[in-house]
Amino acid sequence: MMIFWIGFLAFIGCLLALDLGVFHKTDEEPDTKSALRWTLVWVLVALAFSGFIYGAYSHHWFGIGLGPNGLPPLGLNGLPLDPATAGKTAAMDFITGYLIEYSLSLDNIFVIAMIFTFFKIPGKYQHRALFWGIIGAIVLRGALILAGTALVSRFEWVLYLFGFFLVFTAIKMLFKGDEEIDPEHSWIVKGVRKFYPVSPVLVNNHFFTKLPDGRKAVTRLFLALVLIENTDLIFALDSIPAIFAVTKDPFIVFTSNIFAILGLRSLFFALSAMLNKFHLLKYSIVAVLGFVGVKMLVVYFEIHISSPISLTVIVTSLTLGVVASLAFPPKTTSP
């Protein structure tokens, strides 16, 4: 099993190296068409990986998909799953988890856009900040997933706690106004400024620079990166518990998370020019969070909602959010 973890991390490392070292080695602002193409590429890569998941769990390559006792997992009827069923279940869980993480990351895009606007980061440097933000997100989410998996495996009641938390978050999102951030008074930005002065000018795509007096300083691009990492951690506290409603398999939880993160950058550039058009997607995210939370809670009553049903609910919620946003555009305030 360990060989798959190592192989997956090596695979992701190669993709990131190609991304920054080959396809985006120069600082250029991605246009909408290019961003949409890359969004499609990352989605297709994720779908192709779901095919690998199917094969790995069907044939138990290197013991993947087997329980701690070396035996196939049990189905809801208490009997061992046959290889074909195990592969289909794992692939469906991966796709469902990927879509949950991808949909919940939409809220993150709005916050990232506000951060870049506040710090006045040109579009051609935003890709570099998001690239290194992804590196940090992989490490942070990996740690959270390991901790969450350990808790869920030892204490079953943690799942119900996650369910209550997600339902509470959905209700909170539903009744509060649009989220506002104040980077200038953020505790993490204040913390950075205690150790380093901030350069008044943006020095190309550099995170660090030197002031005329020789002191080392950070740039606004670094502050934007730190704040993006902080917001991703906050959003991960919602999204990671959500995927445990689909599966407790740490490999599927981690890989679906990472593929969703990888596609976040291109999705950001694809939607950044028209974020205001999808103002009703907030309610789709609320619906997804609420549904996943309820799915966790009803397990207590031995009600199990399958991944195909979950996938249908999530796709329907997102589709309705997009269609409603386009059908009822936001009202513009007259000057």
Keywords:
335 residues; 2 strands; 68% helix; 2% strand
Radius of gyration: 21 Å
Give average pLDDT, whole number. 78
Q: What's the tally of helices?
A: 11
Shape: globular
SSE sequence, one letter per element: HHHHHHEEHHHHH
Strand order of the largest sheet: 1-2
Proportion of helical residues: 55-70%
Instruction: Tell me the quaternary state.
Output: single chain
Count up the domains: 1
Task: Tell me what you see in this structure.
With 335 residues, this protein is mainly α. It has one domain (31-68, 80-184, 220-326). It is built from eleven helices and two strands, in the order H-H-H-H-H-H-E-E-H-H-H-H-H. The protein has a two-stranded antiparallel sheet with strand order 1-2. Helix 2 (32-59) packs antiparallel against helix 3, helix 4 (123-154) runs parallel beside helix 7 (220-243) and helix 4 packs antiparallel against helix 8 (250-262). The longest helix has 36 residues, at 83-118. It is globular, with a radius of gyration of 21 Å. The mean pLDDT is 78.
